[in-house]
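This is your field. Please look over both lines of this record.
***
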Amino acid sequence: MSTGHGTDSAPAPDDNPQNPQNPENPQNFENPQNSRTPQNGARKQPRDSADVPGGKRHRHTQVTDAKPAPKPSMFSSLRIRNYRLFAAGQAVSNTGTWMQRIAQDWLVLSLTGSATAVGITTALQFLPMLLFGLYGGVIADRCDKRKLLLITQSVMGLTGLALAALTLSGQVHVWHVYALAFVLGLATVLDNPTRQTFVTEMVGPEQIGNAVSLNSANFQSARLVGPAIAGVMISAVGSGWAFLFNGLSFIAPLAGLLLMRTGELHRIERVPRSKGQLREGLSYVRSHPELIWPIVLVGFVGTFGFNFPIWLTAFTDRVFEEGAGTYGLLNTLMAVGSVVGALLSARRRVTRMRLMAGAALLFGLLEAAAALSPSFWLFAALMAPIGIMGLTFNVTANSGVQTASDPAMRGRVMSLYMMVFMGGTPIGGPLMGWVTDTFGPRIGFLSGGIISAVVAVGVGLALARAGGLRLRVDLRRGHRHVRFVPREARGAEREKVTSAA
């Protein structure tokens, strides 16, 4: 981790990859987020042996040379001035982004009368991430992240202003929207991994989980406000003014970036330009189970489990035979759940891979339950829990991958993460849309939930195996029936049985 500007000051990791206390050990089922103190790089002692997989709890174990951990705070990252500036700017910009999403879809539908054209617009916006996403991470690792964000945020604001000018002047055509959506996607290729990794520079590794959670709460809160404002604005004065608001909203994050105290940033040494950096990043991820398996899970859940515009519109129209108001209600309930999930995640100081896998499993099971719901009110009641689990999974995976990554590789790792998460939309959207149209909304929603749940179980077992654990089922009364135990325990049990015989 960095203690200030300049090179990364973390100590070299333990050379023994089998050491269970090694924070860089890929065999550790727990994420190594809090294995070092933020001040001097020294490893922390576990609070008790229950923090070590398979360890027995000793209630009276004390560590006399360690300071007590501060009480977790839901908003601890906001104590940092640079992050406050960033969060305030993002709150304004995220509201504008949600306004433009609604206005853009409405404009394309008004110009063409075609839902396919709306889908093409969305695909063009996400296509650059699928095609070029990995290169964005390489550039992010090479460049000053604050300066790069000033460029990307400016370009994104200009796309909104250009669309506003075309719409308000009455000169807009659908190809204009297509082109600007693609340009916005190109800017996102650089902006997304840079913005994700810049959070670490603002708050430091010890606060990354809290900051990622607050970023998600920020975005989901804007999801509650932005579409409502856009709907009123479109009805009153037209789509062009929503685009104008979005373009101008980027002034807020730009001002926040300019007002930051650069000396207070946790600077990460920039990677010099050289050949093979993209291949190096892919090899790095592939060789670390605590990175590759969460990214695999994010790819499957993002591609097959997050197709709510398709499923909620289909359920509203074809299953419950309701209108736009009901569709808006379902989205609002899910957004409320997402905000709650983000705030609950912000209280956690430790990122655990088992929480990520468990949240993904519950997310898939809740989707399956919603797909089979016999009534509208049960379906609606499940939207908030789905939002909570979806956001818990997203935050845990995001912060876990960031903290497990070497700082010099973090941009490339996060670009791969975002590529598989966002880049799956052009693939999963049409596929799940076809399943929904062909076999019905219930089968479409059910299939997405089952895929998410099955892959979550597989990834959870893979992470446990990489951590030297195995699943143990114990049917004796008074014992935990299902738990993970060290693999060595099986050999010890067999030896005990043999000696007893």
The mean pLDDT is 78.
